[in-house]
């Protein structure tokens, strides 16, 4: 399965949006992002999108969703209701991304509707855990200092994710920061250790 970071060239603030292209041609977009150029970038890699899987519905992840649906008419999988949603997903469900089956893990704390999806080889972690960001460069976690967010719930979510993650996951595609290839479990464990200290992620929190 080929995974393309389709918002990598964005010059405006957006989440990472990933296009997973299966060997059989089945394509899935994980998050739609907020970049106006995402549709043209997707079209440079594929003629169509079969499905969109949303990790959560913060604006930087969902702003271009309706435009993506208008352009490609995909199935839309999301935990929370959305005008474009065609399939509700919940903890314990499975969803196809590219040509792999992924387990859905409910991971709130950063957002009430947050899910992560994990297969035998790959993790799409949204914002619950990222490899690197402005706070840490190896094993960071989603911010929890805004209304409706909870560090305690985020910590619980990361623990749940570790329990559900198969051994040997080697690819991590997070909502922000860089793509990581290697020992994903170590990155997630590092993020958990940092989050569990309960110190502010950013100095101004």
TrEMBL record:
Entries under InterPro entries matching the protein: MBL_Glyoxalase_II, Metallo-B-lactamas, RibonucZ/Hydroxyglut_hydro
SUPFAM superfamilies listed in its UniProt record: Metallo-hydrolase/oxidoreductase
A Pfam family the protein falls into: Lactamase_B
Keywords assigned: Hydrolase, Metal-binding, Zinc
GO MF annotation terms: hydrolase activity; metal ion binding
Keyword flag Protease: no
Cofactor dependence: Zn(2+)
Keyword Signal recorded: no
Matches recorded under CDD domains: metallo-hydrolase-like_MBL-fold (cd06262)
Record domain Metallo-beta-lactamase: where: 14-176
Protein name in UniProt: MBL fold metallo-hydrolase
Source organism of this protein record: Natrinema thermotolerans
